Amino acid sequence: MADEKKYMTLSMGPQHPATHGVLRVILELDGEVVHKAIPVIGHLHRGVEKLGEARTYHQNIVFSDRLDYTSAMNNNLAYCLTVEKLCGIEVPDRAKVIRVIMAELSRIAAHLIWLATHALDIGAMTLYFYCFREREEILDMFELASGQRLTPSYIRIGGVMNDLPDGFIERLKKFVDNFDAHVDEYETLLTKNPIWIARTKGVGYISAEDAINWGITGPVLRGSGVKFDFRKATPYSGYENYEFDIPTGTHGDCYDRYLVRLEELRQSNRILKQALKMLPSGAVNADVPQLVFPEKEKVLTNIESLIMQFKLASGGFTVPKGEVYASVENAKGEFGYYIVSDGSSKPYRMRIKSSCFINLSALPFIVKGSMVADVVAVIGSIDIVLGEIDR
Amino acid sequence: MNSTEIFETIKSDCRNLLKDAFSGIDLSTFVIEPEHLIEFMKYIKNTPELSFDLITDITAVDYPNRTKRFELVYHIFSIKNSLRIRVKTNVEDGGSIESVTCIWKGAEWLEREVFDMFGVNFKNHPDLRRILMNEDYKYHPLKKEFPLQGYEES
Fold first, then answer.
1. DSSP B32
2. What three-state secondary structure class fits A291?
3. ipTM for the whole complex
4. What would you report as the CA-atom Rg of chain B, rounded to the nearest whole angstrom?
5. A323 and B84 in contact by Cβ < 8 A?
6. Alpha helices in A93-125 (DSSP H)
7. Given this model, what pLDDT does residue B151 score?
8. How far is B23 from chain A (nearest CA, A)?
9. How far is residue B148 from each of residues A33, A319, B152, measured CA to CA in Å?
10. Are B54 and A215 an interchain contact pair (Cβ–Cβ within 8 Å)?
11. For the segment A253-278, what is each residue's pLDDT rounded down to a tens digit?
């Protein structure tokens, strides 16, 4: 056809730094306006769901860390909640509170890395260093508790890996006391910054109705004005005992999503303060020896514990037949596991419900008709982690 | 409405569509024939007191010994009722089923993934292509006969 418009095709990524990993977006451009955006994913596909079918229930915990590697504790939690539901295990109160502490720290760390890189994409570099300063402190705390910074696998089936080590509480208290001031500090750099406002306000709009229709969850949904959070809607791990607000936006643009996440940082800190107050004493693991690893001390001194440790590590434990779906509100949205058990020691099917995967699927819809430079802002404000999208 | 009320409402309203309905360990589960899928999904989304408006997940489970070997599993959430349900249907190897993208746009990538991993075709899908594996890949990796280490170096 003679009057058919010619579009320029631009391939963004998968090595582009602003695509937060290995996302490739094929852009069809009409001048500087995006006519069509086609995300291409799968570059980081490791087949975690397939691998899960060949690994025991304990071994699968370590895969969960490597999905959304910015908020690993939340992934551990989602997986362990699913298996616990399947086995009908109740976790002790102390373990529940420790899990909430870790999940919220993880959320803060994930939001900080989002804020740092999102601002960096749009050209605000200073903030990057501030955010990483606090994130470093959180990762150090993770290392103290679990020995690992990025992939802690600290939350285990039936409880947590071990009790909080000496000095952890003091460190957390210090962090919690200072953190609100740090959030104010981030705000002074961005919230009223005219460049930041020009780059984010009115950019990447999605209405509440569309957001729900696209299955979007998490801060993106809340940025569009839907007051909805899985920690409130379907509480898990004792979230019903904490007081916190669900921040929402009104305009559904990048700026509102930014405000929502900043407020979530404060709310997470509020939850941490309450968790520190209510942390009960007691065991950190359910008393179910057939599926919870014995304490290291006992393994080294007691022959039965040593045998049990060997059995659990080599053969795993069997799980009753059935199917269960359980999810958590991670930093990006709803992250869940659907596990089908055939009664053996390995899952028959392990499905991972990724929040970023669905949130990203709306990208072509959100960026249609916007400028090329805004695509970077939108990708940043959706907050994606390719480890979780590609699985 | 609470979980039991919703379970009973759906059960009595959809008597003719349901093959089976039961309360699982975690969620109310409804089993339907593939030809009734769209009718049922439209009903649970558009009935105001149910309004299952948020698509959580679409996936499949492979049972190679069954004649209709793939069990498609839909998880759908109702923001209004803070409740999730599970809907199941069955489809044979290489078979096809109606796409639910006309009901929830968010189903688009989820169905593409089921197509990619299991080879289930979705009728009336706007853009049914592979999503995680590359376009010229020959296999469907989540089928049970696919070996863990794959067939070839790629």
1. E
2. coil
3. 0.90
4. 16
5. no
6. 93-122
7. 79
8. 11
9. 44, 22, 11
10. yes
11. 889 999 999 999 999 999 999 999 99
> What pLDDT is recorded for position A268?
92
Residue window 11-50, chain A: list those with CB within 8 Å of chain B.
Answer: 41-42, 45, 47, 49-50
- Type of residue at A248: T
| B154 pLDDT tier (thresholds 50, 70, 90) | low
Give the span between the Cα atoms of A349 and B117, in whole angstroms: 13
In chain B, what residues touch A55 (CB-CB under 8 Å)? Answer: none
Which residues of B fall within a CB distance of 8 Å from A85? 25-26
Nearest CA in chain B to A43: B132
Answer whether B92 touches A (CB < 8 Å): no
- List C-alpha distances in Å: A76 to A83, A154, A321: 11, 7, 22
> Cα(A57)–Cα(A291) distance, rounded to whole angstroms?
10
The Cα–Cα gap between A57 and A341 comes to: 10
pLDDT at A21: 76
Does the distance separating the beta carbons of B84 and A45 come in below 8 Å? no
If DSSP codes are grouped into helix, strand and coil, which group holds residue B140? coil
- d(CA A216, CA A231) in angstroms, rounded, equals 16
- Separate counts of helices (H) and strands (E) for chain B: 3, 7
Closest-CA residue in chain A for B85? Answer: A325
Residues of A in contact with B26 (CB under 8 A): 85, 324-326
3-class DSSP assignment, residue B55: strand
Residues of chain A short of pLDDT 50, as ranges, are: 1-2
A12 is written with which tokens?
A: 């963004």
CB contact under 8 A, A324 and B26: yes
Rounded-to-10 torsion of CA A138, A141, A145, A151: 40
In chain B, % of residues over pLDDT 70? 98
Say which residues have a Cβ less than 8 Å from residue A162's Cβ, sequence separation at least 6: A145, A284, A295, A296
Residues 6+ apart with CB under 8 A from A351: A49, A337, A338, A339, B57, B59, B73
Please count the other Cβ atoms lying within 10 Å of the Cβ belonging to residue A6: 5
Tokens describing residue B21:
């309905």
CB B57 to CB A351 under 8 A? yes
Task: For residue A131, give Cα distances in angstroms to A13, A104, B21, B74.
Answer: 25, 16, 50, 39
Counting beta carbons within 10 angstroms of the beta carbon of residue A15, is it exposed (0 to 12), middle (13 to 18) or buried (19 or more)?
Answer: exposed
pTM: 0.90
pLDDT in tens, B93-114: 878 898 999 899 989 999 999 9
